[in-house]
Every structure is written in structure tokens, then in C-alpha cells.
Amino acid sequence: MGDGGRYELKYVIEETRARAITGFLRGYLRPSTYNRPGPIPGEPVVSLYFDSPDLLFYRQAFAGIRNRMKLRVRYYDNDWDHPAFLEVKRRVSDVICKDRAMISREVVQQLLRDGWPSLLHRSDHSALVCTKKQAAVRQQFSYLSSIAQARAVLYTTYIREAFVGAEGESLRVTMDRQIRATLYEGDDRVEVPSRGVPPNPRSIRPDSVVLELKFNGGCPQWMQRMVRVFNLYRRSVSKYCECVEAIGLPLRRHGLAEPQRWTVA
Questions:
Q1: CATH code, 240
Q2: Rounded Cα–Cα distance for residues 35 and 161 (Å)
Q3: Could you tell me what percent of the chain has a pLDDT over 90?
Q4: Is residue 240 part of a domain?
Q5: Is the separation of the CB atoms in 10 and 208 below 8 Å?
Q6: How far apart are CA 2 and CA 95, in angstroms?
Q7: DSSP output for 15-74
Q8: What is the pTM of this model?
Q9: Which of 19, 73, 215, 257 has its CA 20 to 30 A from that of 31?
Q10: Alpha-carbon distance 259 to 63, whole Å?
């Protein structure tokens, strides 16, 4: 399952199996400190996706192109004083590369009005620390958005239950539940609503759980054993693609058939 780089293996399962896998994981990983207790444990995640007028990034994912990318802004809570995160996520063959940079919500709100080219010239007067690496990500995000003429398209929201290794993010397993889609309507909304659900969402496979196994380098033997024990079948899963279809963005005018929905296996 790979010798180097970052890998993400995805599976779609039912809740009963997800709970059994949770018990198995506790023997190897620890629950993330960001998980919140409740009937649906985990952390609310809201991503605002950007795409070109002809949905280039969607079409790349839908066609299964091996080298592709996504642009998004991600939030984790409803506190205006907490940062949002610019994210540039690339897939290069089987390897996943993700760069992110903190940005204040005030600047996100301004950029949604003024456009991404202004990102390079926008001063962030918040107390956020901007390292050289984060400044480079901001520049990269601005450049890619400008080239693609990307604009905000939709929100995806879900509750993510995460488990991590003792050494942090190099080994991570996540389960995403209550995946929902909301059309971005130019309202400059950047707050995360309660439990991460914007108004009028469309549910995406409400009875399914998206399981992701994430690791650097080789896949641990215990993780390979888990795949066999729980009869998991890897599949291509794009929450963004499913959300595009769920809210009815105009796919057919680009010569695209409706995406095939996930099946639980």
C-alpha cells in the first residue's frame, strides 16, 4: 500500500460496522482531543469549496484524473475570533498533498466580496501568526484561484470522529457522518452554525459513514488486518462530487452524466 508519501484509503460503511471498528481502533490509536461527546461523537467540519465557472475541479474528480486538486476554506467552530484555514489539496497519483494556512474570518469575508486576487494585497490585522510557509500557501491559493477564475460554490458539512497515533498526524483514521451540502449564495456567511450545519442542507447518504485510513509511508500491519477482518472494500469517494450532484449544480451542460451514488460495502 505504498512506501512513501501521504496516503488516504476510503471506504463507505454502515453505522453498525463503524461502531465495531471504533472499538478495534482503540487498541492502536487514541481519540482526537477535538472529538466532542454526544449521540454523534466528533468535531463539526465545514468546508467552503471553490471551483471554476465550468466546474473544472469537479470534472477532474468525477473523471478520476490521477493528478488533480481542490481549493477550499475550512472552519471548525462558530467563534469569529478563531481562524479559518485556506487549503490547497492535491492528489498526485496515489499520494495526497495538503497545504493550509490560517486566515482570519474577517479577511475571508472581504475576499468573498472582492475576489481572490486581492488576497496578496490584503492586510490581516488579526493576531494570527503568518509564517513564511503560510504566506506561500496564501500566494499559491490566490494564484490558482485566479488562473481558474474560481469562486465559492458550496458548503460541505459533516461530523468527523478522528483517531490519531501517538506521533500525531502521520497516522490517522476518521469517520465522517451526517454529510450535507448547501449551495453558496453569495451571502458572505463565514460563521459555522451549531454542529456544523448551514441552513437548508441536502443530506448525502444519511445512513452511511465515510471511513478514511490516512498514513505516511507504508500501511501498518494492524490496519491491513482491520481491512480484512471488517471486510472493507476500498472505493473512490468524493464528498465534494456528491455534494455538487445533491444540490443540482448544472452538470449536464458540461456533458456530464449524474455521478454514481455511493454504495455501502
A1: 3.20.100.30
A2: 6
A3: 45
A4: yes
A5: no
A6: 9
A7: HHHHHHHHHHHTTT-EE-TT-B-SSS-BEEEEEEEEE-TT-HHHHHHHTT-SEEEEEEEE
A8: 0.86
A9: 73
A10: 10
